[in-house]
Amino acid sequence: MNKKGLAILMRTRMRPSNDSAHLARSPLANMVNQTVNGSQSSSGTQKLNASSNTKRDLEVVSESMHSAISMSKTEVLDSVLSDFSEGYFSLSYENRRKLLVQLAKEYDLNRTQVRDLIKQYLGLELPGTGSDNADSEEEASLSAFYRIERNLRHALKPMYEVLFERLNTHPGGLKFLSILRADILSILAEDNLASLRALDSYLKEKLSTWLSPAALELHQITWDDPASLLEKIVAYEAVHPISNLIDLKRRLGVGRRCFGYFHPAIPGEPLIFIEAALMKDLAQSVQEVLWDVPPIPECEATCALFYSISSTQPGLSGINLGKFLIKRVITLVRKDMPHISTFATLSPIPGYMQWLLSKLASQSKLAEGEDMPNTSADRSGSTFWENILEPEEERELTDAFGEFTTGKNSMEVMLNLLTSANHEWTKSDKLLSVLKPPLMRLCARYLLQEKKRGKALDFVANFHLQNGAMVERINWMADRSDKGLHQSGGIMVNYVYRLGNIEDYSQSYFSTGHIHTSNELSR
Fold it and tell me: Torsion angle, CA of 30/33/35/38, rounded to 10 degrees?
């Protein structure tokens, strides 16, 4: 093993594929976890002293935050901002929460001033409505409008904007703002405070501006990059965890590509990165992408298959950097490899099994009520009942699986099979053959018909569709890992980016929610 491999191995904790709890942690949760673990060996006296210092620590950080907002002396501002960010990281979970709520409430905009300005504005007479419309009078009237409008624009800016703006230009400040927003999102998940929502919305808007595509640098990540960067790829890979150094080297080697978006203010760390495989045809399973060796010669490839896209900053949630990354990578690959004509994905369907199991549970209970003797008037109460299985699928389930599971109806039988321990249903060819038709058909329904506010219910589907992709093919048993079986019953989907239709498909999806599909899925 060379020095780089040894460095990555020693500095990176290779995550097991089922470590979803680690992925879900925010920087705030990680900090709290470290604090708790580190304090377990402390003596009782140390704990008491730490508790007594907690309030004082919060007050000190609160004062430095106030100074960072109100100070006009630029020569000491950097020092104050550094004190604030360092002090913030030293706070406990509860004190961070208190500080952020204080920031949201006490440094908000002055609504009394805003209301007074609006009253003044409404009291002005519109130019041209008086009897005398001399140019000088009209100019004077417009001047009053301009003055109040300028004052309104200033009054509608919350005081915490000053803090955000100053941190953005401070060394390490953009990364700190990302962590700050991750903490805000973590707190909002527990307590949906209106003031914190407003703070989050404002910070998200600022980050979106500062992280525009023009400010980002696209970089192809290879094995030749520093070990410190490669360990971040291992740590942040969120779709198909990297199991070992051989796996990492394969993903960065011949027939594979990895691209990341970087910002100059956060050097050596991608904000988001995407992994692609160069293939002859559209892959139908993740095994073809991750495990098949050796790869084909790159000159024979006709398809660039994106199989993983991972964000490294929880605080950038909701800022669609992936849209711009995919389009720039397509442009770059087309330029460097003209023989690549197909750009597609092999994507997970993370919400499918949750939706399906919930549907089966609710409908099987309603089906019990339908089987009971009742009048037509009573049946009207079951308006939302539907048998989500086709008659042939019902017969196959009830005839084949009496020996495997119990159930009062076919939907309950299917529910019991799919929730069996250790995904036992995947270990029987007979079970797989009978479950394949309903699972594939219902997966197509989930992807193409189930909507939320007019858009695809599945968030990965929504991401690619709003970026201008179409749904090409649904693949059976494409990911047999525990994660893949748990999320989607092992099913994966290919989205294809048709180069001449990307903008049209994106626009039609945004405006009407229309989802473009292949002829095979349209039937």
Answer: -120
Sequence-distant (≥ 6) Cβ neighbours of residue 98 within 8 angstroms: 58
Spatial separation of the C-alpha atoms in residues 207 and 173, rounded to whole Å:
12
Look-up of token digits 């504005």? 121
Cα 221 from chain centre? 22
Q: What is the pLDDT of residues 106-123, one digit of tens each?
A: 999 999 999 999 999 999
Q: Considering just the CA atoms, what is the radius of gyration of the chain in Å? A: 28
Query: Mind listing the pLDDT tens digit for each residue in 321-358?
Result: 999 999 999 999 999 999 999 999 999 999 999 999 99
DSSP state, 517? B
CA gap 280, 344 in Å, rounded: 12
Q: For 147-176, give one letter per residue: b (16+ CB within 10 A) or e.
A: ebeebeeebeebebeebbebbbebeebbbb
- State the average pLDDT over residues 258-287: 96
Cα–Cα distances (Å) from 384 to 52, 438, 446, 453, in that order, read 58, 20, 17, 19
Question: Amino acid identity, residue 312?
Answer: T
Rounded to whole angstroms, how far apart are CA atoms 255 and 297? Answer: 7
| CA-closest candidate to residue 198, choices 136, 156, 227 | 156
Active site residues: 347, 464
Do residues 400 and 438 make contact, with C-beta atoms less than 8 angstroms apart? no
Report the percent of the chain where pLDDT is more than 70. 83
- Rounded-to-integer distance, Cα 240 and Cα 227, Å: 20
Going by the DSSP 8-state scheme, the letter that residue 217 receives in this structure is E
Residue 477 has pLDDT above 60, yes or no: yes
